[in-house]
Design brief:
With 165 residues, the chain is an alpha+beta fold. It has two helices and eleven strands. β1 and β2 (55-58) form a beta hairpin. The longest helix is centred in the N-terminal third of the chain and has 19 residues, at 5-23. The N and C termini lie far apart (79 Å). Residues 1-30 form the signal peptide.
C-alpha cells in the first residue's frame, strides 16, 4: 500500500506539532509541574521569589530552598560548595535549605523552624550549631561535615549559629 505524499506531509506536520506542544517547557522558569510546586510551596512558606521551577530565594539569596533533588543525582549529602544545608527528611531528603552567613539566625525567618532532619556542611572552615531556642542540639562543620539523621532531635531546631573561624 502506498500512502499519498499529501497525507504523509500532514501526518508529519501533526507529529511535529505534538512533539513541540508536549515537550516545550512553557513560560520561562515554569514547567507545569514545577510552577505548581513552586506556587504551592510559596503559599505555605511566603516571602520567597522563584529562581526557576525548582528553587526559591529568600531575603535576596540569604536562603535558597531547593524543592526536589536534581534528576540523575544520588540520594546523598549534596550541599553546594560554600554553603551549609539542612534537609526536611533524614538521609538528605528534599526539600533542602541552604545558608552561608555567619552568626545566629532564626530558621523561622524562612519557615524552616522545626523541619530539620539531616544536614551537610560544605564550607572550608567553621562550624554550625543547631539549636532549640537556647539548647544546643548538634553541630556540623569542616571537621564533621554530615549528619544523615538528626535523631533524636529531628524537627527540633529553630535556630542555627555559624561560627566562621
Amino acid at each position: 500500500m502506498v500512502i499519498p505524499r499529501p497525507v504523509v506531509a500532514v501526518l508529519a506536520a501533526v507529529l511535529c506539532w505534538l512533539l513541540i506542544v508536549f515537550s516545550a517547557p512553557g513560560p520561562a522558569g515554569a514547567g507545569a509541574a514545577g510552577s505548581q510546586e513552586i506556587a504551592d510551596y510559596l503559599a505555605t512558606h511566603p516571602g520567597g521569589k522563584a529562581l526557576n521551577d525548582n528553587e526559591i530565594s529568600y531575603d535576596g539569596g540569604a536562603l535558597i530552598v531547593t524543592l526536589r533533588r536534581p534528576i540523575g543525582t544520588l540520594a546523598a549529602a549534596d550541599c553546594p560548595s560554600g554553603w551549609y544545608c539542612f534537609y526536611e527528611w533524614p538521609n538528605y531528603g528534599y526539600p533542602r535549605g541552604r545558608l552561608s552567613d555567619c552568626g545566629r539566625q532564626s530558621l523561622a525567618t524562612w519557615h524552616w523552624q522545626f523541619r530539620v532532619e539531616s544536614a551537610h556542611y560544605n564550607l572550608a572552615s567553621g562550624t554550625v550549631s543547631f539549636y532549640y531556642y537556647d539548647t544546643r542540639l548538634f553541630d556540623i562543620g569542616a571537621g564533621n561535615r554530615v549528619r544523615s539523621d538528626a535523631s533524636p532531635y529531628r524537627n527540633w531546631p529553630n535556630y542555627v549559629d555559624r561560627r566562621c573561624r
